[in-house]
Specification:
It is a single chain. The protein is an all-alpha fold. Helices cover about 75% and strands about 0% of the residues. The protein has 14 helices and no strands. It has helices at about 5-20, 25-35, 40-45, 50-70, 70-80, 90-110, 110-115, 120-140, 155-160, 165-175, 185-195, 200-220, 235-260, 265-285. Helix 1 runs antiparallel to helix 2, helix 2 (about 25-35) packs across helix 8 (about 120-140) and helix 4 crosses helix 13 (about 235-260).
Length: about 290
């Protein structure tokens, strides 16, 4: 029977919350860290129930994202509900819809494939290394681009600088994050920058785009949480979701400021180092 302890819940929730918006892949860390710790940590992370735990922790992150950006989301939803097509919020809603559709369609079509690969540490290590190369390559290819736009609010910058084609391309790129090890936030920012956006605008768009994608994936899987397979672990799971919520709040607060002036390179180096070490460990020693 699946047994999720309070210590495992706290650690898992913290990992999820901190890494969700750092471009280092929360799913990849959810697989790799228990595998590195070994023993019961590795055993519980390689069960079908653990995916349900990861989904619950992601839902807590989605709630934190909505609260942090609540004023912006309220403005967007207000524009849609009142059908104010000339407002910035309405245009951003359409861009977010275009950015969400590709990953939703690909996720539904290949759900079983991605689920089968979720529990494999070696696969997560390989994709985390690839994630590092994506981040590093993005910075090298866009190094001369300005990172901040003066005189415009975040939403005004998104509405004026992100085209429907760019939003769709970013959504397609975001689908790569269905592989554990590829960062959803990192690949979204990278595809935005590679499509001509500044780092600041790409990051602001990625912050907003994270919420509907995480929420949709969580809701799609949520009913399985109540089928009884983890009924003995609801207490620890509740603690883990609380930790994930506050850790996400902390990480997004740090990153909103970071991407105004700084680069993806530290995260790229981290992914390359941790990914390569994990490939050596799980590829050579199992």
């Amino acid at each position: 029977m699946f047994h999720f302890t309070y210590l495992q819940a706290v650690v898992s929730g913290f990992i999820q919350g901190i890494t969700e918006l750092f471009p280092v892949s929360s799913l990849g860390h959810s697989v790799l860290i228990p595998a590195w710790l070994g023993g019961s940590w590795r055993a519980y992370s390689q069960t079908p129930q653990y995916l349900l735990v990861a989904i619950a922790l992601h839902l807590a992150s989605a709630a934190a994202l909505f609260i942090v950006f609540a004023p912006r989301w309220i403005a967007i939803l207000r524009s849609v509900l009142l059908w104010k097509k000339d407002e910035i919020g309405f245009r951003i809603f359409l861009l977010l819809l275009l950015g969400t559709l590709p990953v939703a369609i690909i996720g539904l079509l290949f759900n079983n494939f991605f689920q089968k690969n979720f529990e494999k540490p070696l696969a997560a290590a390989i994709f985390l290394t690839i994630n590092g190369f994506i981040l590093f390559g993005t910075e090298k290819l866009t190094s001369r681009r300005h990172s901040h736009i003066e005189g415009l609010s975040e939403d005004a910058a998104i509405a004026s600088r992100v085209s429907p084609g760019q939003a769709l391309a970013i959504g397609v790129g975001q689908s790569a994050a269905l592989f554990a090890g590829i960062s959803r936030f990192g690949v979204t920012v990278s595809f935005g920058m590679l499509r001509g956006l500044s780092r600041s605008v790409a990051a602001d768009f990625a912050f907003l785009l994270s919420f509907p994608v995480i929420l949709g994936a969580s809701i799609f899987k949520l009913p399985k949480l109540f089928h009884g397979s983890i009924s003995g672990s609801y207490g620890p799971l509740a603690v883990g979701t609380i930790v994930s919520f506050f850790a996400t709040m902390l990480s997004v607060t740090i990153l909103v400021k970071w991407f105004k002036t700084r680069t993806l390179k530290p995260f790229a180096l981290y992914c390359l180092a941790f990914g390569l070490l994990s490939i050596i460990k799980f590829g050579l020693f199992g």
